[in-house]
Amino acid sequence: MDMHNKFIDINEVEMMFHTKKGSFHALRDINLTVQKGEFITLIGHSGCGKSTLLNLIAGLLKPSDGLLLCANREIAGPSPERSVVFQNHSLLPWLTCYENIFLGVERVFGATENRTQLRDRTRAALALVGLTAAESKRPNEISGGMKQRVGIARALAMEPKVLLMDEPFGALDALTRAHLQDELLKIVAKTESTVVMVTHDVDEAVLLSDRIVMMTNGPAATIGEILEVKLARPRERVALAQDARYSEYRTAVLEFLYRKQAHPAREAA
Ligand SMILES: Nc1ncnc2c1ncn2[C@@H]1O[C@H](COP(=O)(O)OP(=O)(O)OP(=O)(O)O)[C@@H](O)[C@H]1O
């Protein structure tokens, strides 16, 4: 039970970047625990350090101070147990959808499973995101939304303990985005995944999250407030649009972003 309560455990994390121009204090005093099966979104103004925090959980960055744990073990580097989906899909252009996913599957399970098992895992992942028919197409032959679905399938096929997503739908048009949010909700319900996702989109945050982690502005950004979204699942966007509680959650996030953390005109300085 205890492990479930603190599946990801972030303790007193600080992040400084050292550049030629000097040091930049990006994150301070970050404390957060994520439970198994929980869906967390990180929201905040541009440059506040959302990607930095996600990359720390991914193990792509090391904290300047503090400790990050996943399933009671220190996060010491990247691992397929914490797979990442980026905004720009990062598929290999010369491989088909099938091959892009197979590559990840082989990396994780290649040493312990035979070709048939690896193939079955790849096909199951393609089916999960509804792309069976596109398996032999290359990334330049499919739409942006389909590419993101392949990215999600590739991440999920590695059976990660945690799925980390950095604005996975940020580059998509509104309708495709809505469609993929709905699909992601179904997939996460089916796989019982633990997800940490960076977003700029308030509606996306409310629709998907169990908790919304709202970050203050940088430099030295930290967690300002955490909003628990107690809307029952499965969630259905059309019904929620008329739900008074949905509007309250939405307003609470907007209030935080545009009143409490109204963005200082740093660009103008
Ligand atoms: N490698 C780095 N070296 C120096 N500074 C960095 C580095 N990476 C990020 N930063 C700085 O840290 C701060 C946080 O960046 P980060 O990309 O995490 O913000 P973000 O909230 O994800 O932004 P956005 O919403 O615009 O993607 C920014 O001021 C950025 O310039």
Automatic annotation (TrEMBL):
Entry annotated with the keyword Transmembrane: no
Topology term for the membrane: Peripheral membrane protein
The GO terms describing molecular function are: ATP binding
Keywords noted in UniProt: ATP-binding, Cell membrane, Membrane, Nucleotide-binding, Transport
ABC transporter domain location: 10-242
Pfam families in the cross-refs: ABC_tran
Cited PROSITE patterns: ABC_TRANSPORTER_1 (PS00211), ABC_TRANSPORTER_2 (PS50893)
- InterPro entries, per this entry? AAA+_ATPase, ABC_transporter-like_ATP-bd, ABC_transporter-like_CS, ABC_transporter_ATP-bind, NO3_transporter_ATP-bd-like, P-loop_NTPase
Q: Where in or outside the cell?
A: Cell membrane
Source organism, top-level taxon: Bacteria
- Where mainly found? membrane
Tagged with keyword Membrane: yes
Q: Which PANTHER family match?
A: NITRATE ABC TRANSPORTER ATP-BINDING PROTEIN, TAURINE IMPORT ATP-BINDING PROTEIN-RELATED
Which protein family is it in?
Belongs to the ABC transporter superfamily.
Which protein, by its recorded name, is this? Answer: Nitrate ABC transporter ATP-binding protein
Q: What is the species of this protein?
A: Herbaspirillum hiltneri N3
